[in-house]
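User: Could you check the structure of this?
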Amino acid sequence: MLSDEIFWAACDFDQIYMTFNGGASWAYQPTADVGPGNQYLVGIDALDTKTALVIGTSAGYPPKGKIMKTTDGGNTWVLKDTTNSYMSNIAYAKE
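Assistant: Sure, the predicted structure tokens are below.
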């Protein structure tokens, strides 16, 4: 959450949503074809309203994970890395 009104939600099957009004309405942010598909998006952290990281993990074996990033408020997501491990959270570190 960036404030009481602005936050992202990371969901199952690569779905990401963002709200600017405390959850009264949500905007879907497509992530089609960004890394391994049909993952549980289990962690998200935002630096500001434009920049966020999301991690996904597979439910089965072998484990597959991914890290995605947006720098334009979620209009586009890019794959930053993949892994053969299960992941559960991600965080930005500010100086």
